[in-house]
């Protein structure tokens, strides 16, 4: 059993409890249907390991999902004392990092970073690089400003010091969509159809927007050492690279002004080397497209557990991956080798494969 799952989620019990209480009291569906967040595995490392054993997962990398901002906010306002953002974030990160010791290295948590709080973000980045855990941080691709309704993507100028700190420290940046970007449709779709649209398409577009804005704004040129891991094969990036190449050439040939403008625009394909993507929710066709566009060394296995139950995100996804007629070396790289190299995980742990028993 050597598979590394590079896309899973967890929260300390006091944070998960506060978040579920807030969902029940508020009736909010802003984070999607509340049932998405109800698995007891979210705050249970033993349940996390049990599901990993069942599906042949050696090491699970825990990052933060689209609900992170809401969950930490709910937790900060509840309990015996109210906490400020920096205190809440640091406490959550320290508790989650401790899961590695508690599980013999089976659960490895990235430190959560909120770029809206620059001092806290820089502190957490330094800790991620030096505290003995995996050198990785976790962020959302965009942050909603409630007062204005504006989404601030990672290229926001105010976030520049955070990207600079991440590059300087050498940490890996896991980026998860916020699910706050919505493809507008009028009239609104009925019932849960809007949630389906958000999960199935808007989140993919949000991820792709985050990547393209980082490139076109010049952020990835300024911070060329950044290594970013995006979920769901990087959104629609793999199939969009050719389209961006075409539009770049069209603009260059339109007229002199357009040629000067297009000359200042970055080629999206030139920055594919900064981008890693996980396999969550991919079918065999999408997987092959991502492999060709990004390269086999940049694709990691990811399940989205426990938002996506193990039988879907792990058993089903591994079946798709192993049935995609990939070369053996490519399959091993995706299942394990790429994540080990990126995160410095070292040799496989000695774990009995209960799923094969």
Automatic annotation (TrEMBL):
Gene3D superfamilies according to UniProt: Metal-dependent hydrolases
Superkingdom as given in the UniProt entry: Bacteria
Lyase is among the record's keywords: yes
Stored InterPro entries: ACMSD (IPR032465), Amidohydro-rel (IPR006680), Metal_Hydrolase (IPR032466)
Keyword Lyase found: yes
Organism: Streptomyces lomondensis
Keywords linked to the UniProt accession: Lyase
Annotated ranges, domain Amidohydrolase-related: 4-345
Name the UniProt record assigns to this protein: Amidohydrolase-related domain-containing protein
